[in-house]
Amino acid sequence: xxxxxxxxxxxxxxxxxxxxxxxxxxxxxxxxxxxxxxxxxxxxxxxxxxxxxxxxxxxxxxxxxxxxxxxxxxxxxxxxxxxxxxxxxxxxxxxxxxxxxxxxxxxxxxxxxxxxxxxxxxxxxxxxxxxxxxxxxxxxxxxxxxxxxxxxxxxxxxxxxxxxxxxxxxxxxxxxxxxxxxxxxxxxxxxxxxxxxxxxxxxxxxxxxxxxxxxxxxxxxxxxxxxxxxxxxxxxxxxxxxxxxxxxxxxxxxxxxxxxxxxxxxxxxxxxxxxxxxxxxxxxxxxxxxxxxxxxxxxxxxxxxxxxxxxxxxxxxxxxxxxxxxxxxxxxxxxxxxxxxxxxxxxxxxxxxxxxxxxxxxxxxxxxx
Length: 369
Prior knowledge:
Elements: H1 3-10, E1 38-44, H2 52-59, E2 71-77, H3 80-88, E3 94-98, H4 99-106, E4 114-123, E5 129-133, H5 142-149, E6 153-156, H6 161-173, E7 179-182, H7 185-194, E8 199-202, H8 206-212, E9 216-221, H9 222-225, E10 229-236, H10 237-242, H11 244-261, H12 267-277, H13 283-291, E11 303-307, H14 313-328, H15 345-353, E12 361-364
Parallel strand pairs: 1-2, 1-3, 6-7, 6-8
Antiparallel strand pairs: 3-10, 4-10, 5-8, 5-9, 11-12
């Protein structure tokens, strides 16, 4: 991972989404149903909860479903905010992103009508991972670790899902750090190296990579507070309206990708696919990001990814929690998403046709080699 480039992009958080896209995007012409189509798919490189896009692209699963002659390009950014801006600017037709960016994107209708069409995954410990410096004391459980954090220096990229998580974690465990800093992953890594930082909340694969590099240890996760974060597939409304055949085709491939990821026999090949797209991470760090088995006392969970695919009550609860956080932090000015912000019909129809129910699979933790 090019950390200087990461630092440049990570500074663009949710509070500045709309600034980069001041004008309404022109309506796109996606052709007629059945015609070949060229799609541009945007996604972050370094957020493991949307890595089904890597399975789809690496295995070229979409070729089975899109009209013959269709092509796909990928725009890989460093975080969800970049993907949101690409969607709002009309540079991408389909986007993969975390929960807060997805919810935010649907509210920026003055720039582009973007809608959520599927869930990529939910997890207790993808975006919700709390780590402490490597030389912190050994703790018997998360509660003891959070008591140690009192009066210490803590950091996270504010406005992100990690910020939402850590605020709830502190509130529910009565934790009061001396300093709560807004820092990107490069600065957090540097802070652990220099000893200036005591703890941080970061997402996968950064969390596992910092642990693997010997800079930090996991001590808590979303399991500690009983909440999961998630990832989503979003699409341009023009694509949904003009080419329902393409929407359904892509989501068929997305389902195949999730089913393929859930098979433990595919773990090595999955990480090989990710390695070809993502640089700067250790092999073990990438493996542990979605397959790593961490102790329960440190917020570990036997299931690393739940794959709802469609909009279950658990997914909709996440939507409500995320919107509340964004509204409270003045990122959006609505109390709930508009009625058509979420399009559940495609995933529901596909599951019915294929005789499947949600969750379609689980990515279970396993010991690394």
